[in-house]
Amino acid sequence: MSLDKFFRDFERYSNEGDLGSLATCFAESFVLATPEGQQMILARDFVAAMAKRKQQFEDMGASKTELVSLEERQLGEAYRLADTEWRFGFAKVEGGNEVTARSTFLVHMTDATRIVLYLPHGDVVKTMGHTKPQS
Fold first, then answer.
1. What pLDDT is stored for residue 65 in this prediction?
2. Which regions of 1-135 does DSSP assign to beta strands (E)?
3. pTM for the full model?
4. pLDDT category, 124, cuts 50, 70, 90?
5. What SS3 class is residue 18?
6. What local confidence, expressed as pLDDT, does residue 92 receive?
7. Looking at the domain assignment, is residue 17 inside a domain?
8. 109/114 Cα distance (integer angstroms)
9. Is residue 133 in a domain?
């Protein structure tokens, strides 16, 4: 599977709220790297966190998740580094209702392509906290 197809599927699962399929994009355990540090995450625990985040997004009037850009680099035979930019649409935000965020992924490219490292460059929920919700 191409990396573009992999992330287009990821985008579709996000928009459909298909957490089960979204979880299959991640290895059984993977590294989550944030400014606070890194930790190993079990995919099954990540699904529970994604459900809470989905609810937060819905509360903010989430309308879409869109992959804006994807730049990839081969790392050895089986891995690709993916630098991505995402656009999130929110209906309950006064003035522009879109937020963009960058993320980097290390993807193991096998028959079962999976994310083994996820590095979000920011927090969409915190970014949205700096905007004024519509009444």
1. 84
2. 26-34, 37-42, 62-75, 79-90, 98-108, 114-120
3. 0.84
4. low
5. coil
6. 63
7. yes
8. 7
9. no
What pLDDT band is residue 72 in, cutting at 50, 70 and 90? Answer: very high
- Which tokens is 7 given? 């992330």
Asked if 75 and 108 touch (Cβ cutoff 8 Å), the reply is no
Both tokens of 132, joined, read 């004024």
Looking up residue 59, the CATH number of its domain turns out to be 3.10.450.50
pLDDT 10s digits, 14-55: 888 898 999 999 999 999 998 889 999 998 888 888 888 777
Determine the 3-state secondary structure of 56 from DSSP: helix
Structural domain including 118 reads: 3-128
Q: How far apart are CA 40 and CA 22, in angstroms?
A: 18
Question: Exposed e or buried b for every residue in 18-37, given b needs 16+ CB within 10 A?
Answer: ebeebbbbbbeebebeeeee
The two structure tokens encoding residue 133: 């919700």
Can you tell me the distance from the alpha carbon of 28 to that of 68, in angstroms, rounded to the nearest whole number? 27
Q: Are the C-beta atoms of residues 132 and 94 closer than 8 Å to each other?
A: yes
Sole residue written with tokens 């083994």: 116
Long-range Cβ contact pairs of 39-45 (< 8 A, separation 24 or more): none
Average pLDDT for 3-19 = 92
